[in-house]
């Protein structure tokens, strides 16, 4: 199976950025262990982070008929981007939305997501573990739906 992990703006600053909220691990560290976890499940994992909405959208379009499942942390675009939502709908690839922090415990503007109602599932507040739970769940779902 081919799984794409997408991370939105400012997540390249993980480790340095508000460590009390987002933890001390860097994105590179998290993605390296996630890639290892994927290998053990025979999943080919690709990771892409961008601070630009258009680049994330392009990456989603390129995934059409190539990627079986997406794990996405849209970061601040969660709360703003109809365009990113439409991109995911346009390729109809199932996805899990992940947030490191518990967005519902934070500012009111973080309570709404443009993704949750069309997501396969949503994980938030569990830190970097959320990506691993998402991978586990994606794998289960892919095995279930495989011919
Ligand atoms: C985030 C939560 C968002 O509200 C925020 O804009 C982020 C990160 C998280 O992983 O907790 O950049 O998606």
Automatic annotation (TrEMBL):
**Which positions does the site annotation Transition state stabilizer cover?**
17
GO terms, molecular function: 3-dehydroquinate dehydratase activity
Q: Name one Pfam family in it.
A: DHquinase_II
Keyword hit for Amino-acid biosynthesis: yes
Query: Mind telling me which InterPro entries this protein's record contains?
Result: DHquinase_II (IPR001874), DHquinase_II_CS (IPR018509), DHquinase_II_sf (IPR036441)
At which positions is substrate bound?
A: 73, 79, 86, 100-101, 110
Q: Which UniProt keywords apply?
A: Amino-acid biosynthesis, Aromatic amino acid biosynthesis, Lyase
GO process terms (BP)? amino acid biosynthetic process; aromatic amino acid family biosynthetic process; chorismate biosynthetic process; quinate catabolic process
Q: Which residues form the active site?
A: 22, 99
Q: Does the keyword Lyase apply?
A: yes
Pathway(s) served:
Metabolic intermediate biosynthesis; chorismate biosynthesis; chorismate from D-erythrose 4-phosphate and phosphoenolpyruvate: step 3/7
- Enzyme nomenclature, EC number: 4.2.1.10
Q: What does this protein do?
A: Catalyzes a trans-dehydration via an enolate intermediate.
The family assignment reads: Belongs to the type-II 3-dehydroquinase family.
Report the HAMAP family cross-referenced here.
Answer: AroQ
Which protein are we looking at? 3-dehydroquinate dehydratase
Q: Gene behind this chain? A: aroQ
């Amino acid at each position: 199976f081919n799984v794409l992990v997408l991370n939105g703006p400012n997540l390249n600053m993980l480790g340095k950025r508000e460590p009390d909220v987002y933890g001390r691990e860097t994105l590179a560290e998290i993605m390296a262990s996630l890639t290892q976890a994927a290998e053990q499940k025979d999943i080919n994992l690709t990771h892409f982070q961008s601070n630009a909405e258009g680049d994330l959208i392009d990456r989603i379009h390129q995934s059409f008929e190539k990627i079986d499942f997406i794990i996405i942390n849209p970061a601040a675009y969660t709360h703003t981007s109809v365009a990113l939502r439409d991109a995911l709908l346009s390729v109809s690839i199932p996805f899990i939305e992940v947030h490191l922090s518990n967005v519902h415990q934070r500012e009111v503007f973080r309570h709404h997501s443009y993704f949750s109602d069309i997501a396969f599932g949503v994980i938030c507040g569990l830190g970097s573990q959320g990506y691993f739970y998402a991978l586990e769940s994606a794998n289960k779902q892919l095995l279930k739906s495989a011919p």
